[in-house]
Amino acid sequence: MSQVDVIAIDGPVASGKGSVSSGVAKALDFHVLDSGALYRLTALACMNQCVDLSDAAAAEKVAQSLNPLFKDGKIYLEGKEVTDAIRTEEVGLNASKIAAYPGVRKALFELQRRSAVAPGLVADGRDMGSVVFPEARLKIFLTASAESRAKRRYNQLKEKGISSNIDDLVSDLKDRDRRDMERSVAPLKPAEGARILDSSGLTLQETIDLVLAWYRESKA
């Protein structure tokens, strides 16, 4: 059981979990766990090693040996900075595929649990409240319409100089939602006791403020 406060923020891809988690953590001076980055790192490592992504055992082996470094807002894999590399659509799609493998999820479980250290943790992912931190003080299921999420992702990619198509992004997001919700292990769904937060009509700061208000309420 975690001995420090954990705020678990789960939800579908591109729902704004990363930005909200960072904002909440900054306000509270908490650590942040971007669990999605671990799956993306595993996917990138598989791609770098030319591992067949349909081979669950091979992907699990890569996950077991994963030793990333998170430092000063940047992410390193085998000594190379991969902060932007793991955010490509190709890596994201492959991460969604290997996240369905029970062996991969098991390999990354303890790595995530060890992130709960003082003064507190904001954990961002798909199963933070339901599986990894069921004892979390506050559990949030952050969602938004596929169209709203696609627009956000489009703008993110545009800022990085990556061309994309809104309709394709909507289709990809719906495919990934279905795959995440239908997988046999830790399917995407609100954790027991989670508060549902639809951010479709909210600004980033409004969403952060609401999570902070709910956290203060949980401690009252």
From TrEMBL:
Q: Which reaction does it catalyse?
A: dCMP + ATP = dCDP + ADP; CMP + ATP = CDP + ADP
**Residue positions binding ATP:** G11, P12, V13, A14, S15, G16, K17, G18, S19
What is the protein's given name? Answer: Cytidylate kinase
Question: Keywords on this record?
Answer: ATP-binding, Cytoplasm, Kinase, Nucleotide-binding, Transferase
What GO biological process, any one, is recorded here? Answer: pyrimidine nucleotide metabolic process
The family database entries (CDD domains) matched by this protein are listed as: CMPK
Q: Which organism is it from?
A: Parasutterella excrementihominis YIT 11859
* Compartment(s): Cytoplasm
Gene Ontology cellular-component terms listed: cytosol
- UniProt domain Cytidylate kinase: residue ranges: 7-215
